Amino acid sequence: MQSKYISISSPSPHVLLLELNRKPVNAFNTEFWKEYGRTFDTLSTHHDDIRAVILSSAFPKIFSAGLDFQGLNQLGGKDLLIDPARRALLTRALILDVQHAITAPERCPFPVIAAVHGGVVGLGIDIISACDVRYAASDAKFSIKALDMGLAADAGTLAHLLKITGNHSLARELAYTSRMFSSDDALTLGLVSRVVEGGREAVVGVALQLAREIALKSPIAVSGTKHLLLHARDHSVAENLEYTATWNSAAVQSKDLHEAVNAGMTKSKEAIKFLPLKPKL
Q1: Which residues of 195-229 are buried (b: 16+ CB within 10 A; e: fewer)?
Q2: Rounded to whole angstroms, how far apart are CA atoms 210 and 203?
């Protein structure tokens, strides 16, 4: 599963660590964002028993500098021989492709935990906004940078931000100004749920603890919880309750439920060895 710009390792059973690894600052060109989306989509259907993924950077001082200038120029549609309407169609298709790639973690049946440190700029915020859990090192600095590039952020930040946070005033302030903000500001905003004192190693270590805890749970239950949380985000309470009833009418027949109930009744302290989400046939 190794790829050109993403390093993949398994620091714990059922847990993968994905590290962005495009020198010098993880700036995303076309090849990089395509590889990013393809990697997560491949993991979603992979035969290995993957139960949690940590997303971080291979570089100690930065998570991502965002989209590189080549990418910005491509979005501009510079071929003047094509009329504006047709340029708009081509540009729209390109933006949709970027959005599809950057939101790939949402399509995964397992949780994706972003462990960020250093600079998290522009597309870096789009990326972590599509992750399930976001932890930041105390040295992390963030910026919704698109406005300074003469553009509204279009790969996920604006779509996710007001659903992630209850502090709409701060979210809008940061989006309108592109100013750099700290990990503590990100915690106040609700962009991250935890600030870990230190840098890359510290935040990845804490994220690994969370991933290990998730990996002990029923993968059927974890996958269903993620699916229903995403459904709840995009639907009314009544719609989600009805959908959940249909979903769980199948899920309650899982062997995992009976094993978990029996373990609870017998007060067993041994972790249940749940079957993979997608057992090999």
Answers
A1: bbeebbebbbebbbebbbebbebbbbebbbebebe
A2: 11
User: Nearest 5°: phi and psi at 216?
Assistant: -80, -15
Domain boundaries, the chain: 6-215, 219-266
Mean pLDDT along residues 187-197: 96
- According to CATH, the superfamily of the domain at 219-266 is Lyase 2-enoyl-coa Hydratase, Chain  A, domain 2 (1.10.12.10)
3-state helix, strand, coil in the chain (%, to 5): 50, 15, 35
Q: What is the pLDDT of residue 35?
A: 96
Give dist(CA 69, CA 75) in Å, integer: 10
219-266 has the same fold as 6-215 = no
CA 12/CA 50 separation, integer angstroms: 10
Cα angle 184-214-99, degrees, rounded to a multiple of 5:
65
Q: Name the amino acid, one letter, at 254.
A: S
**Residue 15 pLDDT exceeds 70:** yes
- Domain 6-215 - what CATH class? alpha beta
Give the pLDDT confidence score for residue 267 in this predicted structure: 67
User: Is-above-0.70 flag for pTM?
Assistant: yes
Neighbours of 249 (CB within 10 A): 9
Name the one residue in this structure whose structure tokens are 């309750």: 241
Indicate the helix (H) or strand (E) that contains 141. Answer: strand 141-143
The CA R_g of the chain, rounded to the nearest whole Å, is 20
Alpha-helical (H) ranges within 60-152 are 69-75, 84-102, 104-107, 123-129
Assess whether pLDDT exceeds 60 at residue 76.
no
Mean pLDDT for the chain overall: 91
